[in-house]
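Comment thread on ticket #2218

A.B. wrote:
> Attaching the input chain for the structure job we discussed in standup.
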Amino acid sequence: MTIFTKKIRLLEKDKWTHTNIPFGIEEQAKRLILKFSYSPKYFYDKDKSLELLRDSLKHYAPEKSFTDKDLERFLPIKNLLTVSLDSPEGVVGTAHNQSNDQVHIISKEKSSFGFFNQEIIKGIWNITVSAHSIVSPYVDVSLEVEIE
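C.D. wrote:
> Ran it. Output below, let me know if you need it in another format.
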């Protein structure tokens, strides 16, 4: 049964931020299924991408010099968002991976990689969407929580 859905739009200015999204569970359940997706994953504006890469390299590798041809091997550049989950009792886990379409299952017996085995209890839970890199003008995020 779907108990929560949310769509949000993050902008370039939201990079390096964490967006907390609370939701309530009104009955104890066996499993929680968290669906997390975002789009676009890739940014295809070559000129803007090269500009972003140059700016990053000035910060992270100021002693090195790169030609546009060197930088083109990193194209297309990517948005990177990750998701974490907290129960009313504390941290449940996190999924820091490159996929922009994820499904995580949490239960007392077995949970997805990155998440603790956790009883699904009543109360206020929290999803945190962390924006590690937003290179496109915006990123649309979709969240869905189901319980069984």
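A.B. wrote:
> Thanks. Noting for the ticket: The two ends are 6 Å apart (CA to CA).
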